[in-house]
Amino acid sequence: MNRYPxxxxxRLDTPLSxxxxxxxxxxxxxxxxxxxxxxxxxxxxxxxxxxxxxVTGRYPRAVFDFNVGVLRWTWRVAYYSYGALGTDRYPPFTxxxxxxxxxxxDVDYPERLSRGLVLVKWxxxxxxxxxxxxxxxxxxxxxxxxxxxxxxxxxxxxxxxxxxxxxVALLFTGRYPRGIFDIVLGMNRWVLRVAAYAALMTDxxxxxxxxxxxxxxxxxxxxxAESPHAPAHxxxxxxxxxVACGSVLVSVGLAFAGIGAATLTLDRDADGFVGxxxxxxxxxxxxxxxxxxxxxxxxxxxxRDFVGQVRVEADSAGPPVFVGIAPAAAADRYLKDVAHxxxxxxxxxxxxxxxxxxQPPAPPLGQHFWAALSQDSALTWEAAPGDxxxxxxxxxxxxxxxxxxxxxxxVPALGGVIVGSLTAFxxxxxxxxxxxxxxxxxxAPPRAQTPRPVTTGS
Length: 458
Known about the structure:
11 helices; DUF4389 domain-containing protein; alpha+beta; transmembrane; 5-stranded antiparallel sheet; transmembrane helix; about 40% helix; membrane
């Protein structure tokens, strides 16, 4: 049986502290914070590796060493914390190997990779393994009932459950059950092999077998030989920081690009208004109101600059619908003794608060307090300071109001959002790419010095 090219090992330290595991979440916090930008870089550089493999059939060695280092760092932190609790030794802050640390991870560098497999192995071929990895690493417990509500506790899958059992045993007995440790290491080994395969580091399909125990079986009794054709790169702290920061900048730039693209695709009507989907509102009473909405002078300036004019449309298949915006006090006086519903929650599945009463004293169109009222079932309003209420009624003041309500805005700041987002994307993408290239350059091995010929005088 050939040894799989992804190597995951762990040595159970003894003795282990009975209670240190209770605070390891806090002790490992610096590592968690550093792994966030490192995993951002890992994802971005895996895309770079995908393109390189597709074009050349080779995984760039500098990128390979970096990504292996991120997985190695992650494994050491998981082994120290709640992925295994196998050691109390604090993980080193480095991507490189540490022979003295009880958790080790490595991947044999492949000289050639299939250009065809790179298109399908990370999503299609690895799918059966993803299902098993999900079983190993994710899962939650729901406690409660449908009346009192549910509380969800993330147990971390089978690995998390077994580590929790081992932690309780450690707390009370001072010993880590060896059988549990062997199974936990086997499942972690499976997970990391799949991670390396999905990250395009090998074409060898992960085996469907649980190799338990801290050390991998080595039938030939010797570790795999290192490739002599690709010298290891030197991922110093400066090179790592440049790549991590550059990847974060590129990721933020891509987020801005997404905002700009989404803004460009917003649905505008013929008048340039941007609106949401229509929401059905209905009541058997005489009116529907939104309740009091208070706008202050600073808030109004922001609304006018960014939201612009607001348009409210109410389409009805029944009687003509009236829509009006009025000072809240005037609307309250008009509807004081009128049966109406107040919107408690707007949107799909709207909720109402019922106010009992009788019919209106007069149709809404005859009132003079409206700040804006509908023309052909639609009104346009520009925000102003004050307390305001939106009222929807049948134009003839009859009961039973049914309409599809749609709110839209002119959004004058939309053009600036698009330009700003795309500008930010270009600046951040260029700056991030420059930092990544700088990090890759800093990680390159030193060139061999060619000795100068020695000349002697005659």
